[in-house]
Design a protein that fits this description.
Layout lengths: L2 E9 L3 E4 H7 L4 H8 L3 E3 L7 H9 L11 E7 L10 H8 L7 E5 L5 H15 L4 E10 L12 E11 L4 E3 L4 E4 L5 E2 L8 E2 L1 H23 L6 E6 L4 H9 L7 H14 L1 H6 L6 H12 L8 E8 L3 E9 L9 H9 L2 E2 L2 H9 L9 E2 L9 E7 L2 E6 L3
Parallel strand pairs: 2-15, 4-5, 4-6, 12-13
Antiparallel strand pairs: 1-7, 1-8, 2-3, 6-7, 8-14, 9-14, 10-11, 13-14, 16-17, 17-18
Length: 390
């Protein structure tokens, strides 16, 4: 039985900051951000959106009356959780009006968690062929204004339906993992912004890619030339390019050129959005599916997932007949094209307006946010999620 990605949705806020202008404001050459890091724009998340509401806005695009009652499991990957006990998946289940006799769980392992959810979902469908699983990756990447990590911020959500006989991609067996206890990136419980050792994390990312790809090839006898493309977790788009270039000597020049060409398609959306943490790899995948003119059913795409701390996985998917009509590419393009640019002053004000970690009541700026699902604030230490009537 074939199991894989049946539907895919994406959401980010309607505001962004231009990276060339941000570079000038930080007394940096624009090329450092545009070329050295590989980012053109960065999504800016208002205080009326969080991991839950962005997930709901992404998932709402792919849930309808045909699949709603078949969903019996929600797996929500995030490192921007809103509660240390209650799962973000429970809030999401309620907002999406899913049936109550289902399982809903939040998963955490830095940027790897959505991949863990996809693999768990695949196994669930193999055991229950009539089931459909909603898998989420939703995060806000925050390092702080004027920090070294500021140009690698961003935010958004990816949502997928995993099912039997999927319309977009099947997930192949097996996959390859590597896990090690390292401190390249972390966020203590008391902090709203991450701590990162950038150079060390970049080195480990490439090492984990090499290890998992090598193990996958040993398990399956797969050659690099068997892959039409490789997509990467992209905390910033230059990172994936570095990893890809590290293995191009293992294939011929023609195929190396092909992989580089497909990589450029895969980073178009991430250049416009920034870091999605758990959803980043799958925004890269969506970007490839929407933008590449070279993909055909039956071709294989390799995926490299990395979550600091650290865990990596390499696996392969196969394009299905008619995948082009199932990906909803026009919706993504319109979402990105219709955004509004913020000045540096407006960006900094929006960044600093986030709801604080406190017991105090708080009201968000809902009047500026037209998204269907939004966070109205906090009252009596409870988050106030709302669904806009449209």
């Amino acid at each position: 039985m074939k199991v894989g990605i049946d539907r895919i949705g994406f959401y980010t806020s309607k505001w962004y900051v231009d990276m060339a202008k941000l570079a000038k404001a930080r007394n940096e050459e624009p090329g450092k951000y545009l070329i050295g890091i590989g980012q053109s724009k960065q999504s800016v998340i208002p205080n009326s959106q969080d991991a839950v509401t962005m997930a709901a806005n992404a998932a709402d695009q792919i849930i309808d009356d045909r699949n709603r009652d078949q969903i019996d499991l929600v797996l929500f990957g995030t490192e921007s959780g809103v509660d240390n006990s209650k799962s973000a998946a429970i809030y999401l289940q309620h907002l999406l009006q899913l049936r109550s006799n289902i399982q809903s769980v939040e998963l955490k392992q830095a940027c790897y968690a959505m991949t863990a959810g996809i693999q768990l979902a695949k196994d669930h469908v193999l055991a229950h062929p009539e089931s459909k699983v909603l898998v989420i990756g939703s995060d806000i990447a925050r390092y702080g204004l004027h920090s070294a990590g500021e140009p690698t911020q961003g935010g958004g959500a990816m949502a997928m339906i995993i099912s039997a006989n999927p319309k977009i991609l099947t997930i192949e067996e097996p996959s390859a993992h590597y896990t090690a206890d390292i401190m390249d990136f972390w966020r203590p419980l008391y902090a709203t912004q991450a701590v990162v050792d950038g150079k060390y994390s970049s080195q480990e990312y490439i090492d984990f890619f090499d290890r998992t790809l090598t193990e996958y090839q040993a398990k399956t006898q797969t050659k690099l030339s068997d892959l039409q493309a490789i997509v990467f977790h992209l905390p910033y788009t230059k990172m994936g390019l570095k990893a890809l270039k590290s293995v191009l000597s293992k294939t011929d020049d023609r195929h190396a050129t092909q992989l580089l060409r497909e990589f450029e398609y895969s980073r178009i959306f991430s250049r416009e959005v920034g870091n999605l943490y758990t959803g980043s790899l799958y925004l890269s995948l969506l970007s490839l599916l929407v933008n590449s003119e070279n993909l055909k059913s039956g071709q294989k795409i390799g995926l490299f997932s990395y979550g600091s701390g650290a865990e990596g996985e390499f696996y392969v998917t196969t394009l299905q007949p008619g995948f082009e009509t199932a990906i909803g590419g026009d919706k993504v393009k319109h979402l990105l094209e219709d955004r509004e640019e913020l000045s540096i002053t407006e960006y900094e004000a929006m960044f600093n307006s986030q709801m604080p970690l406190s017991a105090d009541d708080f009201t968000t700026h809902t009047q500026i946010d037209s998204a269907k699902f939004y966070l109205a604030g906090q009252k009596d230490q409870q988050r106030q999620y709302q669904r806009r009537k449209v």
